[in-house]
């Protein structure tokens, strides 16, 4: 068995790298020493993919990319680098070429779609009083409040940015479906997972913030992927 790969965690819309706060110590406890979490600007898919690529390029050795939510679109776009050895999707978008997260959502709208509202500058927010029920219904009210107040809103245009060459067509992948997801329809997650033919799919009885509400099984999947890509 070779050394474990570096793990790069990629957040989605309405959050930042701190959304991985429970997964990071769990990975560290299991012996993953090279851990990185990108803080993406959420200004466009091209910008976010390039920011992620810059972090990956700084790492000497194999990298496992892990994306939550819109972060799945980012790792799909940025996963073409030669040292990326695998992709893990956590309740995430996995667009095909020419597809965008917005297009996928419109095809099968999630339960909380109406709780997303634009401001006067064109940024899209989850209404604060609807954040708990929309994004993190299986977290405590206090945890959800912190997420709601600190949410990082993307410009609406980012939802329409298309993936160009999906990395899941050439890199091994793993997928976690959240069966109670209200931000990405669970059947959309299943559809995206099925077409990428991942090494493994798991379903968790969780909302969209499964990385925070169920960090142990999410880490189990990441660890399984990491060990698989480390095999001699």
TrEMBL record:
Gene3D superfamilies: alpha/beta hydrolase. This is AB hydrolase-1 domain-containing protein. Residues 7-218 form the AB hydrolase-1 domain. It comes from Streptomyces nojiriensis.
């Amino acid at each position: 068995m070779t050394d474990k790969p570096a793990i790069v965690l990629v957040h989605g819309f309405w959050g930042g790298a701190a959304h991985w706060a429970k997964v990071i110590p769990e990975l560290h406890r299991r012996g993953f020493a090279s851990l990185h979490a990108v803080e993406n600007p959420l200004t466009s898919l091209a910008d976010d993919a390039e920011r992620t690529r810059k972090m990956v390029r700084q790492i000497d050795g194999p990298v496992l990319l892990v994306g939550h939510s819109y972060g799945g679109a980012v790792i799909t776009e940025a996963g073409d680098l030669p040292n990326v050895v695998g992709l893990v999707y956590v309740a995430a978008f996995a667009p095909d070429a020419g597809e965008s997260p917005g297009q996928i959502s419109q095809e099968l709208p999630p339960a909380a779609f109406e709780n997303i509202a634009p401001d006067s500058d064109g940024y899209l927010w989850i209404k604060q009083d609807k954040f708990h029920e929309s994004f993190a219904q299986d977290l405590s009210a206090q945890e959800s409040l912190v997420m709601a107040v600190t949410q990082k809103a993307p410009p609406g245009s980012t939802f329409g940015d298309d993936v160009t060459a999906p990395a899941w067509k050439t890199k091994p992948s793993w997928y976690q479906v959240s069966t109670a997801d209200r931000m990405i329809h669970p059947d959309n997650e299943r559809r995206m997972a099925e077409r990428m033919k991942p090494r493994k799919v798991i379903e968790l009885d969780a909302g969209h913030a499964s990385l925070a509400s169920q960090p142990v099984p999410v880490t189990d999947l990441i660890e399984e992927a990491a060990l698989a890509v480390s095999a001699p």
